[in-house]
Amino acid sequence: MILLFVAGCSLQPAAQPTSTPPVTSQSPVTATEAATSAKPLWEVGKNPLPKGPGGFGEIRPTPPELVNRALPTKDILPPPADGRYASTIAPIPPDVLARSTWQPGCPVSKDELRYLTMSFWGFDGRPHTGEMIVNAKVAEQITGVFAKLYEAKFPLEEMRVSAPAELTAPPTGDGNGTTAFVCRPARGQTNWSAHAYGLAVDINPFCNPYSKGELVLPELASAYVDRGRVRPGMIRAGDVAERAFAAIGWTWGGTWRTPKDLMHFSATGS
Predict the structure, then answer these.
(1) Which residue of 80, 172, 191, 223 shows the fewest CB atoms closer than 10 Å?
(2) Which of 235, 240, 239 is nearest to 263 (CA)?
(3) Is residue 171 part of a domain?
(4) What 3 state SS string does 28-97 have?
(5) Strand ranges inside 87-137, DSSP E
């Protein structure tokens, strides 16, 4: 499935580090280099993984095509016509609600959520328009965060509303979709995830994996557990993504002791 297991962990985060972790002497990989090394292109979601412990997919080494991931974005909405950042905030349209994971049993009503469209830069070096569902209380803040990411040309592979079928789809371990609202419990628990309230955002999960002991999610993203080798789409302490979310009071899962949830930002700290 495309990373609907991600984040929403209820473990308490540790105190944030006071300095940026050291970087190895290896030169950062540019977006152009990453795009070149990612060929031939990988077809996301094509190959289900056998189930491993805990019901997740079997953890496997990162395929060579994804070690320097830079897949192109498939447009679901028209890209910004003038290349400038644009965003909209609206009640969730009925057709969008129908293809989302929202249902009457979710911990928030549909009226407590908002449908966003926002510009973003793809790994292909082009501007695109994505969609996201968030809690109405944080809608304006989130469009402001993504405006900062757009200004910095921080790349995202895709941004779209999560579908119900993804909650039960066989794991493929290769998803990289930036998303927010997903009506599901926290991993391995019965309480609701922060995502179920529209109060958490996961960014480039493959480039910013969840890890706990031997477990890595997405299951093919082990090459990105080592944060010393900087590649496009990675979130690092003190970078534009962490600063933008910190400015609105959100916590980054990359500051937690265990698990490390590098993709995950939340308003609740969990």
Answers:
(1) 191
(2) 235
(3) yes
(4) CCCHHHHHHHCCCCCCCCCCCCCECHHHCECCCCCCHHHCCCCCCCCCCECCCCCCCCCEEEECCCHHHH
(5) 87-90, 113-121, 127-135
Q: Which amino acid is at 210?
A: Y
Element (H, E) at 147: helix 139-151
Q: Is 25 contained in some domain?
A: no
Provide the residue-wise pLDDT of the chain in tens; the chain has 270 residues: 444 444 344 333 333 333 444 444 444 555 545 544 444 589 999 999 999 878 899 999 999 999 999 999 999 999 998 999 999 999 999 999 999 999 999 999 999 999 999 999 999 999 999 999 999 999 999 999 999 999 999 999 999 999 999 999 999 999 999 999 999 876 655 689 999 999 999 999 999 999 999 999 999 999 999 999 999 999 999 999 999 999 999 999 999 999 999 999 999 998
Q: Is 20 exposed, middle or buried (0-12, 13-18, 19+ CB in 10 A)?
A: exposed
Report the chain's C-alpha Rg in angstroms.
Answer: 17
Q: Exposure string (b/e) for 235-254, b if CB count within 10 Å is 16 or more? A: bbbeebbbebbbeeebbbbb
Residue whose pair of structure tokens reads 């789809």 in the numeric block: 169
| Domains: count for the chain | 1
Element (H, E) at 146: helix 139-151
The answer as to whether 14 is a domain residue is no
H or E segment and range at residue 178: strand 177-178
Per the structure, the complete domain to which residue 194 belongs is given by 31-39+70-266
In a domain, 116, yes or no: yes
**Predicted model pTM:** 0.84
User: Among residues 198, 69, 227, which one has the least CA distance to residue 138?
Assistant: 198
Where is 201: in which H helix or E strand?
strand 200-202
- Mapped onto helix, strand or coil, the DSSP state of residue 101 is coil
